[in-house]
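Following up on my earlier message about S-adenosylmethionine. Here are the inputs again, as you asked, copied directly from the submission form:
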Amino acid sequence: MEKLSNIGVIKGLISEHGFTFSKRLGQNFLVNPTVCPRIASLGGAKKGVGVLEIGPGIGVLTNELAKLADRVVAVEIDKRLIPILERTLSEHSNVKIINEDILELDLDSVIREEFSGLEVVVCANLPYYITSPIIMTLLQKRLPIKRITAMVQREAGIRLTAPLGSRDSGAVTVAVNYFSEARILFDVSRVSFVPSPRVDSCVVSFEPRSETPPVKNEDFFFKVVKFMFSQRRKTLLNSITQTMGFPKEMVKTAIFSFTDDLSIRPETLRLNDIIVFSDTLYELFMEALED
Ligand code: SAM
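Thanks, got it. Here's what our run produced:
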């Protein structure tokens, strides 16, 4: 098979199959020949490893993964791409294509059934319209995944990997930090794709933690995180009082559990501060319910 990152080869394939790019499905295919081999090797594709790929497109990254890993399972939502993938991946007997929505798939079963005895990693050039839902699904399900290596919009990469306590951090940063260690591996220019998107991209690595930090109630913790960042300009006190409807005195007591600064703002908090705050608020809330 000719080089799939070659623009002429891509144009030939899509015109032969009558394929047109779908903006709605985030279809921007890689045409920079150096990017996929880098994602494959930095992503941990090698002997003894099974790779779950999300959104293979015409198979440019899939090919690189299949050369290095024992097995590749690629999940593609667009059924128009399946005949193209069957052709572009025909040389690889270790690849399976699943025509499904990644967010609807029972990932636990797929991993158990397809990757028995293998270490599992995820590699993807993600559809940007669902970057956060995909990353959060992979992390929240606590799947047996060693590493996730994903191409995302540069702005999303900055938000996902921002140090907690910095201006770039948000609810998704806290969630990603809680479940994993995340870092940007390298930047990718918009001209590396066809069609070329309006923004640049970067490749991010997420290493799921073997144990997440202990919190009293995880659902409550994530509610607090969501609400505290929903009104970023407000102080923590005002934002939680207004969005969660707790009495001001209760929220003040929870703030005093980690600082004496009542004007503290959500984006300045570190993970441990947020956990202490949420745990104290949860205890006070449960006590109030019992009274
Ligand atoms: N991997 C290819 C590449 O690098 O050239 C294509 C990447 S393109 C940015 C994203 C791919 O994800 C597209 O092929 C698109 O059809 C697919 N996709 C979009 N939404 C999806 C979903 N919910 N589940 C699975 N695949 C999806």
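One observation from looking it over: The pocket of S-adenosylmethionine is lined by residues 25-30, 54-57, 60-61, 75-78, 81, 101-103, 125, 127, 130 (CB under 6 Å). Hope that helps, and feel free to reply on this thread.
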